[in-house]
Design brief:
By secondary structure, this protein is an alpha/beta fold. It is built from 17 helices and 13 strands. Helix 1 crosses helix 7. The longest helix is centred in the middle third of the chain and has 24 residues. The relative contact order is 0.17.
Amino acid sequence: MSGSSFGFELNATAGARTGSDSIGTPARPVDSLPLKQSAPLDLLAGVKVLDLTTSIAGPYAGQLLGDLGAEVLKVERPSQPDDSRAWGPPFLDGESLWFLSVNRNKRGVAIDYGKDAGHALLMRLVAQADVVILNLVGRVQQKLGLDSASLAAVNSKLIHVSITGFGLDGQRSDLPCYDLIAEGWSGVMDMTGEADSPPQKVGTPAADLLAGHDAAMAVMAALLRRSRDGRGCVVDVSMMESMARFMAPRLVPYLGTGEVMRRSGGRDSVIAIYQVFETADEPMTLALGNDAIWRRFWVAVGEPQIADTVDYATNALRRAARETIVKRISGLLLTQPRAYWLRVLGEARVPAGPIQRLDQFATDPELQDRGFLYASERGDSRLPQVGLGIRFDGCTEGSQIPPPVLGADTEACLLYTSDAADEGLGV
């Protein structure tokens, strides 16, 4: 990797919207979020990434790399931009909030690389890049000349990343896939929900986010190896396999015993006690995950004799007596409001917490103070963002580059490659 950019200067405010993007509407939570002021991280400074992906998984991978300091170009086809730009409502000033959630810290370039001139321009960028991320199945990659072999002929040190539903080989490699499909295929949906309810999807696109995280992690590992020996790398991320690995604490016990775990709603099927309880007003979570916490709980609630009951001495014994124990704890917690129990259990270092709605979580002042929930500005627009949530030497990601308007930096790209500008790139 080198410290130079792709070779052209990019305008930090290119493509900024003006006019109708009102900042003063009090009904929008974004208007009360603090603006991000921190400098960008520099861990991946000098790394050049071409993000050719759409939807959630690939863009999330690109955003993670951008948050860590990489220079990321989001390349979209003008006639076929990122699918998630159309995903709504809800929209914010006409833009998809799904799109805004996974595309910060990127520059936006619109190139019709399905045409010869556009493909030639893209190859110029590939020649300078360290990483290319795609979410196209292998057949389509080959059709567009974007497969690993084709791009390695342009840049032998390139890290070529594919995020697909089922991987680049095998009988399912050409099947289309979305988060919902991967969640169902991997067993996650069958394990989610109450025991007597139908299978449930996770409440966020978990397979997308896990696959995107895996892709970003793989890029960093491949960059480390390349720094030692100069080799490029072909990275193959399967959404379904990323999601299935998420199931390892359930899948491995089945493989070892043949016992098929069933969904159990707001409680864990193995750890006792680890579930949702009602209080005098609002529900709460309680996790008595080891013997020491079990003892601290009963001391904290004023019944220390239960802590020393021989029949409850281990998790296996407590699991066998779960019904009796749950009934006793349920009756106890119903005697006081949730805030009381959270204070008492917090002081005793017993893991417990509220079950919050999004509007409650989003107004958590500590999350705003730590820079996790914030707003970034783009022209007259104020865009909500959820932070990286990782700190390096006390610092987390900056948001110097808001999610780009389609093709916001194309003009700068075309000026750099001016001989291609007249050949009809469809921008």
